[in-house]
Amino acid sequence: MIRIFALAAAIFLGLAAQSAWALSITVAVSCFPAFAPMADVLLDQYGELPSAEMLAKNGNAIHLFVAPDEGTWTIVSTDPDGETCTLGYGTDFQPLGLPKPEPAGELH
Q: What is the DSSP string of the chain?
């Protein structure tokens, strides 16, 4: 379920970054020449670990980093050449889960 949330967030942020109305969204973009230095910074400074990965149509890998205990999150994009840049970040991360199934045999 986290993957679905991450994919939806990545798609939204990817579309927003290319849209004129995205000017109201303020995101500090920082880039590294490779994925590893970005991952190190997110772990060392924010305690965030990779939680989900997906592949965008343009060939970029989209990564969701999360610090579950702190509630912070960061979405980054790695292009085919390895350059890795932030797409968005925030607080109050909450994983989405499916409701618990009811025991078999109960009537509603």
A: -HHHHHHHHHHHHHHHHTSGGGGG------EESSHHHHHHHHHHHH--EEEEEEE-TTS-EEEEEEETTTTEEEEEEE-TT--EEEEEEES------PPPPPPTT---
72-95 pLDDT tens trace: 999 999 999 999 999 999 999 888
What percentage of the chain reaches a pLDDT higher than 70?
63
What tokens does 60 get?
């970029």
Task: Say if CB 51 and CB 75 are below 8 A apart.
Answer: no
- Work out the average pLDDT over 35-62: 94
